[in-house]
Amino acid sequence: MDILTGPWPWYVVGPLIGLVVPALLLLGSKRFDISVNLQTMCGVHSWRDEAWNMAMLAGIFLGGVLVATFMQNPDPVAISEATRQDLALLGITDFQGLVPREIISFQSLGRLEGLILLTGGGFLIGFGARYARGCTSGHAITGLASLQLPSLIAIIGFFTGGLIATHLLLPLLLSGM
Amino acid sequence: MTLRTLLPYLFLGIAFGILATKGEVISWFRIQEMFRFQSFHMYGIIAGAITVSAASIRIIRRRGLTTASGEPVALPAQPLSRFGTQYWLGGTIFGLGWALTGACPAPMFALLGNGIGVMSVLIVSALAGTYAYGRLRPWLPH
User: Fold this and answer.
1) How many Cβ atoms from other residues are within 10 Å of residue B121's Cβ?
2) Please, which pLDDT band fits residue A1 given cuts at 50, 70 and 90?
3) 3-state class of B108 per DSSP?
4) Which of residues 5 through 64 in chain A touch B, CB cutoff 8 A?
5) In this structure, are residues A34 and A57 in contact, taking their beta carbons and an 8 Å threshold?
6) Whole-complex ipTM
7) Kind and range of the H or E element at A126?
8) Sign of the dihedral defined by the CA atoms of residues A138, A139, A143, A148, in that order
9) Per residue in A107-133, pLDDT tens?
10) Residue A162, CA distances (Å) to A12, A143, A151, B1, B22 in order
């Protein structure tokens, strides 16, 4: 597999993502938490104080553009056969690209289940991240690594919600597809 | 902050955006695989990131390292109520959205960069949720 276009293994990506935390701390004693940007856009924090975080968010967008332009994976995401079978039972059979077109696309907004999934799901992410004072980057990668109990509690919550959505809500929502 | 001082953060974001895309942590398929316990991939990435992050925080604290401009590095503790309600309840709400959409705040923007235009709808919805929390906060248990 081509290093440029193929997916990168977990043992390369994981440790490198971990380096973002000390890089931010040493650059300016900044805490890695991308969800703070959603609050800045809602006027909760001053743009001046969070300019560094917004610059990072712009970079994340650009990183996506760079991959899509120069190093896009031509093959479907290599998920396990068991997951493919489970998803096929839910009516998801198009495995091309990073997200399933059947439920995550402009076309899917025209169907009730797609509309609920995208707008409802997005609402829950924004609401939950601010309520829990952090998202995956803030609590899992930063908070847990610095042994903060609130972050451990939040991550248990992330997984509880994730399991409920995966095993109860998604089958209910997609049963009409 | 001048534009020049923002550049390192922009580059760090670009690196993270590339890593998140090439590691497929922004893929709905990978998130589903994780919540079905059918592959080690996502757990390997999260564990690898936490291990390196924890080790480097330890080194920074032990050696008393300072920032580039000489300020002390601080990671303030987060407030915790008796039952930690905001963390488990807020976390559960967040987790519901994460598994439904396969995205969280950073991946939304990385996916938008990858040409998934409908992420704009997800981002606006997440902003609505962030705003709604602000309005409802006085009535919510923390």
Assistant:
1) 17
2) low
3) helix
4) 7-8, 10-31, 34-35, 37-39, 41-42, 44, 48, 51-53, 55-64
5) yes
6) 0.96
7) helix A121-131
8) positive
9) 999 999 999 999 999 999 999 999 999
10) 25, 19, 16, 38, 23
What does the block give as tokens for B80?
């915790």
Tell me which amino acid residue B111 is.
L
Q: Which of A97, A157, A164 sits opposite B87 (nearest CB)?
A: A157
Within 3-32 of B, beta carbons closer than 8 Å to A belong to 5-32
- Nearest CA to A139 out of A60, A25, A6, A36 is that of A36
Q: If you measure CA to CA, which chain A residue comes closest to B67?
A: A26
Q: How far is CA B138 from the centre of its chain?
A: 25
Provide the residue ranges of all domains of chain A, joining segments of one domain with +.
Answer: 2-175
CB A33 within 8 A of CB A138: yes
Q: Find the Cα–Cα–Cα–Cα dihedral A148, B53, B108, B112, rounded to 10°.
A: 160
What gap in Å lies between CA A152 and CA A143, rounded to an integer?
Answer: 8
Chain A: closest CA distance from residue B48 (Å): 4
Question: Are the CB atoms for A135 and A34 separated by under 8 Å?
Answer: yes
Place of tokens 């610095």: A146
| Residues β-bridged to residue B72 | B66
Report whether B110 contacts A61 (CB < 8 A): yes
Tens-digit pLDDT profile for residues A148-174: 999 999 999 999 999 999 999 999 999
Q: Does A172 touch chain B (CB under 8 A)?
A: no
